[in-house]
Design goal:
Shape: globular
Largest sheet: 5 strands, mixed
Strand content: 15-25%
Distance between the termini: 27 Å
Length: about 190
């Protein structure tokens, strides 16, 4: 099974997401999530408009729009892959959100996944990524990407494959607060 950054994010939130959704095939009905759906629409719109707006400020030498990338575990569509003047590359991702002085862990994980894909597909080092907050007047935030970050998502991808291929029931997250709003809270054992 080819994974997406969403699979990695769900696994890191709680490994049992993977088990319930992909081993037992119990859907979580993401299509009802307005923000997720609106975000996808914004991505599509942004790719058509304002293509050169902030790249000079970031130091972009070359850009690749709407890149669908894969490796042996992961696949994903990166809004923009940037070649920077220092010879490194960086993912750029649009978020239909307001910037409120903090970066969600899910956004960072998504960039780490894209960094892994870019390094394997373009054979260039990735040590940072960029988020653009559409609802905060296109605020650009730079996110450092370290080797540990890329290793984290690679190990998560391998663990997800183990759960799915071996029908393995993993331990739940150690953060019990996450269980309160979980889609699977009524069927999950503690």
């Amino acid at each position: 099974m080819s994974l997406t950054p969403s699979h990695i994010i769900e696994y890191l939130y709680c490994p049992r997401f993977t088990y319930f959704e992909y081993v037992l095939a119990i859907p979580q009905h993401e299509e009802k999530d307005y923000k997720a759906m609106r975000g996808r629409e914004i991505h599509d719109q942004k790719l058509e408009r304002n293509k050169d707006y902030l790249r000079k400020r970031i130091g972009v030498k070359e850009k690749h729009l709407d890149q669908y990338l894969t490796n042996q575990y992961l696949r994903g569509r990166v809004d923009e892959v940037l070649l920077l003047h220092d010879g490194t590359m960086a993912p750029l991702d649009y978020k239909f959100a307001e910037y409120k002085d903090r970066i969600f862990e899910t956004y960072q994980t998504q960039l780490y996944c894209y960094a892994w894909l870019i390094e394997e597909n373009f054979q260039q080092l990735v040590n940072r990524g960029y988020l653009i907050y559409v609802r905060s007047r296109h605020k650009v935030v730079e996110i450092p990407v370290k080797e540990d970050n890329k290793k984290l998502v690679q190990e998560a991808a391998e663990s997800i494959q183990q759960i799915i291929q071996n029908n393995f029931y993993p331990k739940a997250t150690k953060y019990k607060k996450r269980c309160v709003n979980c889609t699977y809270r009524n069927i999950c054992t503690r």
